Amino acid sequence: MSADLRAIGAQTDGGPKKQRNSGMDILRILAMLFICALHCDERGLGVHVGVDAVSQGVHAMWMNVVLMGVNLFMLITGYCCIGASWRLSRYVSMYFQVAFYSVGFMVLMHVLPFESHEWMWEVIMKRCMDLPLASGYWYFTVYTGLFFIMPFLNKLICSLSKKQLRLLVLACVFVFSFLNIGGGKWIAQGGMNLIWMMGCYIMGAYIRLEDVRIKPIISLLGFVVLIIASAVLKEFVLSSARDYTSPVFLGACVCLVFFFSQIRIKHEGVRAMLAWVSTFAFGVYLFHCHPLTWGVSSKIILRMGFAIDFAWWGWVMIPVAIYAMGTCVDWGRSCLFKWVGINRLSERLSAAAADVVNKWIH
């Protein structure tokens, strides 16, 4: 990569470089499992909830937990990326990964005999072709904006004193969270935009840079109290208490980051396994959120829901099965990419793009 853009990456290395944190690998896996569970509910599993108070209460609490997945991913991004160098090739590789699912599954649709053939084609064309091949994945679309701001954001965060960084975190919580109480969408838009992702990124980076430590039992207790408070507030006081931007909901997510960031696993085999499984979390997201798999899985989940008659184990096992299936598919994709040489191609394209940018800025 040309000198100027390489220098930008080097300037972001001010964060701490430590051994890979297996606790964060576990949290990344859990976050994606939460997202899978949330989407299972949206795809029909939720219709099997009993009408009695106990079933409704357990379901409401379960939904409070699984809704944390998106916030957790945003916080993890800040925690992990503050100490990493910025490489354009990383984004290019991710884009190829997104294109694989968008284009590959469109081809698959014509090979396999799915119902509602014309409807699926219309949905795929609408959701996967705006931001070329990627607009069906809102999280990746928002992450695109964060990625290109990230090196400058890292430089800003690392240049602040401890006091200034704490004030910045407080400002983010106040502006992006407290000012959105009541469902206001004038800034954070319910937590599904770049502004909220940047706020969570800064909070996650702060936890890593300051090495904030809270006793694990206190973190877990805080998580339980806040998640219950969020459910009660949503039910009786404020419907937006379970929004991504809710202060109470955000606090519960931060408590989990505190807890898992302090987990240390010494066994090398376990560490390697966790690192391997967590590597495919993004692929699981792309796999199960694609319109094709979304439509097919909705029918399967509905049928499974009737078969298990809302057995509670189904709420755990179905997301685990989706994660396992997505991991297998994305592992195959990674092998194909390695064989084709996508990483080398990403490096070359990144270098060419860097040359163009450097000539333009000079």
Quick synopsis:
With about 350 residues, this protein is mainly α. It has helices spanning about 5-10, 20-40, 55-65, 70-80, 90-110, 115-130, 140-160, 160-175, 195-210, 215-235, 245-260, 270-280, 280-290, 290-310, 315-340, 340-360.
What does this structure look like?
It is a single chain. The protein has 362 residues and is mostly helical. The chain has one domain (3-361). It is 74% helix and 0% strand. The protein contains 16 helices and no strands. The protein is globular, with a radius of gyration of 21 Å. The chain starts with a helix and ends with a helix. Residues 1-15 have low confidence and may be disordered.
Decide which structural class fits the backbone: mainly alpha
**Helix fraction bin:** over 70%
| Tally of individual domains | 1
Mean pLDDT: 79
How many beta-strand runs? 0
Distance between the amino and carboxyl termini: 16 Å
What does the largest sheet look like?
Answer: none
Q: What is the N-to-C succession of helices and strands?
A: HHHHHHHHHHHHHHHH
Quote the beta fraction.
under 5%
Number of H- or I-type helical stretches: 16
Shape: globular
Low-pLDDT segments: 1-15
Q: Radius of gyration, Cα only, in angstroms?
A: 21 Å
